[in-house]
Amino acid sequence: MPNTLDLDLSPIQKQTLTCFDSDLLRDVIKGADFDLHQVGKGSFQADMFHATIGKGILDSSRYSNAILTEGTISPNNMTFGFIHDSKEASIFNRNTLQKHNIMMGDEGGTLASSITAGTHWSSFQFKREDLLKLGITLEKDNNKVLHFNKKTQKELSYKLGGILHYLEKGNNEKIAQINTELLYHHILAIYANALDQINDVSHLKRDESFLLSKKILTYLKENADQPFQMIELTALTGKSERTVERIFKKHFGIAPYAYLKIHRLHLIRNHLLHTDESIAENIGDIAMKNGFIQMGYFGSEYKKIFGETASETLRKRK
Fold first, then answer.
1. Is the terminal CB of the chain with fewer CB neighbours within 10 Å at N or C?
2. What is the pTM of this model?
């Protein structure tokens, strides 16, 4: 189960998860409202970091396995995200996301990301008016990925990475002496200087495919316990089966059938991890209630994703 390492110094928090737990991961970016799924096969570990810095919030995490995240960003702050390291490209709001890219998200903006295994990212929440004071004006609906030249990438990696390393590894007594208000403006200035290198930071408008992908996702979630056929999604969207698959994969990095299977497996895992022993149901019954008819197939797919059997998960329950 999760192994929590809390520093005595508030508001700095560190945490390590040794198995997938959607409830704890949901709070990785403070103030956001996310639905998360492990999509890669095997065991899972996450190293997470959180710091309240002046008027801002700095979050960081490393995942050992691929994660699909869908939801809304904090309604109170605009958010910048930075990819410190990654082995493979990820997806953020239908954009390719690579090492040293910046993600931008509006206050309360929607987020749909598929983060690959081994990716180290950080996010910084701030007040839009403070960025304006630095001469950077961003219109609303700025949910996009920004790419930079190698020089700017190197500067971002060095400066942002150095701050994170100091906060994560530094002595608590030294960290306590930091002027967090100054640090907040320093981090914001780092991002502002990078944005100043880009001629075009125009907003990215939502297109029809994004709205359709959200519609498909909602339908899959609401009907996860029901038998499913692709014709239901074609009727829902008025698009062909091939188009439905292409739209969904474009935004979430995974086909609808594959997402539904993974979503069902996560519903079962969440049930097993949070079920009181005195009212624990038969695993087979839980699987059937979540759309799995063949127990052999369920057992095989469950172990592929989570690296353990459902019985082993049940023994980890809180």
1. C
2. 0.75
